[in-house]
Amino acid sequence: MENIDITVLRQLLTWRSENKKALLVTVVRTWGSSPRPIGSIMALCEDSRVVGSVSGGCIEDDLIQQHLEPGALKDQLPRLMQYGITADEAHRFGLPCGGTLELLLEYNPQAQILKELIAYLGQGQLVSRSLDLTSGVVTLRITDQPAELVITPNSLINTFGPEYRMLIIGAGQMSEYLATMALFNGFSVTVCDPREEYRSSWSVPNVGLDFGSPDDMVTKFKPDSRTCVVALTHDPKLDDLALLEALETEAFYVGAIGSRRNNASRKLRLIEHFGHSEKSLEKLRGPIGIYIGSKTPSEIAVSVMAEILAVKNGVTLPREMSVGIAKQGLDSE
User: Fold this and answer.
1) Under a CB-based contact definition with an 8 Å cutoff, are residues 78 and 106 in contact?
2) What pTM was estimated for this model as a whole?
3) Where are the alpha helices (DSSP H) in 2-110?
4) Which end of the chain is less crowded, N or C, counting CB atoms within 10 A of the terminal residue's CB?
């Protein structure tokens, strides 16, 4: 499953390439609680098909009803629409108490511009999409910095990024669970394992498989700020090589499976034999995951995915949720 924004844009391009009328809807402001964050998008086709979301479903239904009439999706300038201004309206549309959101409606976006945007994203580019609200003209600009959505009386600027990527070292059972959850959460997943006995039994579709050395794979992968690297083999000869390379990159998450003892031994190896220090290893996570009392591979994968998503979303987890800290506390009881 790819990034939801790219899914929406691809489907919108398909509709527009077939000369179907379509609507692109963007959440541009929220007040109070809101089901979807600012920058979320959805697309609506003239035949009432919808992809993406801006709420829990009720607002999508209302937008469909408003645009079912012939000519409702005619070419026109972008316009703003608010939902949830009153308590009754918030209740009607399933918004949380006090929630209000403002949407920008774009009618019949140009297929060529959509095609260019999707091509840039497919190349791993970060793209700033600017919409002139007075003319409906869209311009694209490659950028190197993620940015929050910006709306002014005359323009909307929304930055679209490439997919988040996950590189997993090891093709074992836990990797299958983690890869499945990562795909479900919109990550592009690649698994690297030079061991034939593990690769031959891999069963998760839509995952890239690499048979080379883990350190070479990390170098080839070129992790950036939208990439996480997770080592799951329990084999220092494989995990350590990948971690050494990943620590030199901008990857937002670098971690390895293992017990507290194994994690301590790994750090000691990297310090004694590879010139690292406690400071340079601050980015290295381990034992990975949040503490949920997990025992099985599937539960451990859930805890790891939860930690990765928290780091991705900028959430600082309490120290007590760290696997190492939590188990240390249990040992002292």
Assistant:
1) yes
2) 0.74
3) 4-17, 58-66, 87-92
4) C
Q: What is the pLDDT of residues 183-223, one digit of tens each?
A: 988 898 999 999 988 878 898 998 999 999 999 999 999 99
Neighbours of 11 (CB within 10 A): 17
Residues 116, 224 within the same domain = no
Residue 321 per-residue DSSP state: G
The 8-class DSSP code of residue 290 comes to B
The verdict on 300 and 182 lying in the same domain is yes
Which helix or strand (DSSP H or E) is residue 301 part of? helix 297-312
203 & 297 share domain: yes
Q: For position 96, what pLDDT does the model report?
A: 55
**Does 273 reside within a domain?**
yes
Given a contact cutoff of 8 angstroms between Cβ atoms, the answer to whether 248 and 270 are in contact is no
Domain range for 184 is 165-332
Q: What are phi and psi of 87, to 5 degrees?
A: -60, -40
Q: CB–CB of 195/239 below 8 Å?
A: no
Residue 231 sits at φ, ψ, to 5 deg, of -100, 120
Is 178 part of any domain?
yes
pLDDT digits (tens, 9 = 90+) for 219-267: 999 998 889 999 999 999 999 999 999 999 999 999 999 988 999 999 9
The answer to whether position 276 is within a domain reads yes
Please, what sign has the CA dihedral across residues 201, 205, 207, 209? Answer: positive
